[in-house]
Amino acid sequence: MVRVREMDAADIEAVSTIRVRGWQAAYAGIVPQPYLDSMTVEGDAGQRRQRFSQPGRKSRDLVALGDRGPVGWICFGPCRSAMPGPGRVGEVYALYISPDLIGRGIGRIFLGEAHAQMKGQGFEASALWVLCDNQRAQRFYERAGYQADGAAQDDVYDGITLTELRYQRVL
């Protein structure tokens, strides 16, 4: 069983390992392989330390703790893009689980906690972005009540343009 708690600075290396290994597993065959191969835990941890120490940051970071320490990470906060309709919208910026533990319910636990915290902060809905070709993630979020809302954006990785779809759900 896992327990969820607020991330602290001591978790940065573990979270960077989870994120980098998560990208390399989830996006193989979607994001260009040279881009995935160039990702390093050290580089990610350096960027994460800078972001984590920024005063006034509005994002929240949680870790899932298992027998071996952190096994998952979720980051969420206010929606970064304009959303149609009334009400405040939160956004799940990132959710990664150690690849060997995917499918054990950790992601569902994380989303439940993030949704509860967003709701407690006055958000009425949650949004997130999923790569168009990441069918596994799309199915996961759809089972959690998210639906694609028709918005799309492009990101470029090593000269290759990949499309992300925005998903939303009411909290």
UniProtKB/TrEMBL annotation:
Residues 2-171 form the N-acetyltransferase domain. CDD domains: NAT_SF. Pfam families: Acetyltransf_1. SUPFAM superfamilies: Acyl-CoA N-acyltransferases (Nat). Signal peptide: none annotated. Keywords: Acyltransferase, Transferase. This is GNAT family N-acetyltransferase.
